[in-house]
TrEMBL record:
Transmembrane segments annotated in the record for this chain: 21-46, 58-78, 85-104, 161-181, 187-204, 225-246, 268-288, 300-318, 324-348, 360-381, 387-406
Species: Streptomyces lunalinharesii
Name of the molecule in the record: MFS transporter
Bilayer topology: Multi-pass membrane protein
Main location: membrane
Length: 438
């Protein structure tokens, strides 16, 4: 036992290092801003360069297609090389590939197939970055003395804030300097984010990973095994798949139809999207303080937020005017704000460190797979029965899902103390049951 005296002002305390967490969050916000700039500049650039709506559509397809599988594949690589290194490499390659688009076009020329390849590759390498940084949140938050709920809320707010702030700024940049300048700025945001993590986020301590020498597909199935062996993870993954199926058609399909057919002016869509985005940002940042006193149960927070969203969808069936509709979309975004922080907090507590990349990547892939299916089905309902019927059906389906989920024993574990990990695939043993709300 060490008998060296400890100074009174430092006895019993652990030095807090907030710098690494702040840097990681800064990289997340920069990367999110870069993604928002990509959404705006890529279609405008391709349309301006080719003059072809078909080519612009193909570019969007090439840019979005890897979202379905790149997260799951990237998750395996994260667990092999570490979240820090994956974050650095993802942003570095994304910055280089998106920067090559205007550079090649202005120098040697850029044929359409090469453009598609660059956009496809950019999304492949950029997609795992979010999961990579998320895998680092727990140790950095603990080192900074920050509640996991707070760190996750700050982290999850980045994509929403990136769209609300980054997309209009990108549009302004394109209007002033052209889409070429916008793409160079896009590239710079990724490169700076890569450098921040490389030079200011410390390397994680080595962890025992007995499965590290397994084959790629065996490691992928290990991630699937975690979903099976930790029931709450499987239940949340299934819940998110269904809710994404029900919800992901709202912004790209139902809101535009509502603005055009009910409000009578498609330009009102911008107001509705802005209100929804601002509400989501506010809800995300409000969750940490509210989780201390009011939103104590993660399970009831999850189901309650979706109940509010369902009720708001049903209120829209009455076809309110613009002012009320803006208020409803803001409230809907506000209710959606706590959802990602709640889910990611539970996953960080439950998933073994050496498997987080795979589980986060797989859950992201599952969520992305639900989106096109939901949009397709919603399109059929809107086209066949009208927007009112679609809003009523989807809102009612939410309430049915919530009633079914209330009976789920696995979801009740969202409020149980994290279990101890006893096996490399995530088998768990029970710990003393205590509230896990920090």
């Amino acid at each position: 036992m060490n008998d060296t005296p400890v100074p009174p002002d430092t006895a019993g305390t652990v030095p807090r290092r907030r710098g690494p967490l702040s840097v990681l969050l800064s990289a997340q916000y920069l990367s999110a801003f870069g993604n928002a700039v990509t959404i705006v500049t890529v279609p405008l650039y391709v349309l301006g360069a080719t003059g072809s709506p078909i080519a612009t559509g193909l570019a969007g397809f090439a840019n979005a297609l890897p979202l379905i599988f790149a997260g799951a594949i990237g998750g395996v690589i994260i667990d092999r090389i570490g979240g820090r290194r994956m974050s650095v490499l993802s942003d570095l390659f994304a910055g280089v590939l998106i920067g090559l688009v205007p550079l090649l076009d202005q120098t040697v020329g850029l044929p359409l197939p090469l453009l598609m390849a660059l956009l496809f590759g950019r999304t492949v390498v950029a997609t795992p970055a979010q999961a990579a940084r998320l895998s680092l949140i727990k140790p950095l938050a603990e080192g900074a003395g920050v509640r996991l709920e707070s760190a996750n809320s700050w982290f999850q707010a980045a994509p929403r804030l990136g769209l609300v702030v980054g997309a209009p700024l990108a549009g302004l940049l394109v209007a002033v300097s052209g889409s070429v300048a916008g793409m160079y700025v896009d590239s710079a945001t990724f490169l700076i984010a890569s450098a921040l993590v490389a030079f200011a986020v410390p390397r994680a301590r080595p962890t025992a990973n007995p499965g590290g020498k397994l084959g790629f597909f065996r490691q992928l199935t290990e991630g699937l095994a975690v979903v099976k062996t930790i029931p709450v993870i499987g239940a949340m993954t299934s819940f998110v798949f269904v809710t994404n199926f029900l919800d992901d058609a709202f912004t790209p399909l139902m809101l535009p139809v509502y603005a055009k057919e009910i409000l009578g002016n498609g330009e009102y869509l911008g107001w509705l999207l802005a209100a929804s985005g601002c509400g989501a940002i506010a809800g995300t940042f409000l969750y940490p303080p509210l989780s201390r006193r009011f939103l104590l149960s993660r399970r009831y927070t999850l189901l309650g937020c979706f109940a509010v969203i369902a009720a708001l969808r049903l209120l829209m069936v009455a076809h309110p005017g613009l002012v009320v509709m803006v208020a409803l979309t803001f409230a809907s975004g506000l209710a959606a704000g706590p959802l990602n922080p709640v889910l990611s907090t539970v996953m960080l507590e439950r998933v073994p460190e050496q498997l987080r990349g795979r589980v986060f990547g797989l859950s992201g892939a599952v969520a992305m797979a639900a989106a096109p299916l939901g949009i397709l089905c919603a399109g059929w309902v809107v086209d066949g029965s009208g927007l009112t019927t679609a809003l009523a059906c989807f809102g009612t389906a939410y309430f049915v899902l919530i009633l079914v989920s209330l009976r789920s024993r696995a979801l009740r574990d969202m409020d149980a103390a994290p279990a101890t990990v006893t096996g490399e695939t995530g088998e768990t043993g029970e710990t003393e049951k205590e509230p896990a709300h920090g």
